[in-house]
Amino acid sequence: MMHFRRFTGIGALVILAACAQAGSPVTPNSATSAGIRSALPGYRVVSYTYRIMPLRTSSRTRRSNADGLIYPDDLTNYGGPMMKSAAAHNIYVNCPAKNQSCWGAPEAFQAGLRGSSFAGMLKQYTGSGPNAYAFSDSVPVSFTVFKGTALYENDLFGIIHQVAAKLKKTGYADIYHVFLPKGTDTCFDFSKQCYSPDHNPTFWFCAYHGTVKFSDLGLVIYSIEPYQDISFCATKKSSGASEVTNSTISTLAHETFEAITDPGPKLAWYNDVGGEVADECEYFVSKVKIGGILYNSQPMYSNRYHACATVP
Question: What is the mean pLDDT of the chain?
Answer without folding.
Answer: 86
